[in-house]
């Protein structure tokens, strides 16, 4: 999928975490957005012929788990967050990164989604730049934010100011 769709999906994951686990909307939204696009950092490595884009080391369950664990440990040691909040950050980071993998599994290129459990390539039926597919996912994210009351939370914050 397109970069913007990964970003919007990651932000949505972050905002849902904040809504249901009581975190900071801005912080969790930014973390979700960052980890929603982070797996595509392998594009740089692909250009340098060091790794394959959408390979197992960036677009898989294993890679998402490593990103989540690293984020959680970093939150605890580098940012002095509590163990509980660090665990939430780790789970949020994993979830946003794995949402990227799931979305890319819908494309013709596919991904090794469940690596290292298995090496099957999961492929879908759309191009990564399909306007209907990307727009549909973006609208589904907006709908989830509306359904779970996150838009109302932002309206309440704006009225507070």
Textual characterization of the structure:
The chain has 7 helices and no strands. It has 161 residues and is mainly α. The chain has one domain. The mean pLDDT is 91.
Walk me through the topology.
Elements: H1 3-21, H2 25-37, H3 42-47, H4 61-77, H5 83-104, H6 131-147, H7 150-160
Helix pairs in contact: 1-2, 1-5, 1-6, 2-5, 4-5
Uncertain residue segments? none
Q: Approximately what portion of the residues adopt beta-strand conformation?
A: under 5%
Mean pLDDT: 91
Domains (count): 1
General form: globular
| Order of secondary-structure elements | HHHHHHH
Q: CA-to-CA gap between the ends?
A: 37 Å
Please report the total strand number as a whole number: 0
Rounded to an integer in angstroms, the radius of gyration calculated over CA atoms is 16 Å
Biggest β-sheet description: none
Q: What structural category arises from helix and sheet content? A: mainly alpha
Count of separate DSSP helical elements: 7
- What percentage of residues falls in helices of 4 or more residues? 55-70%
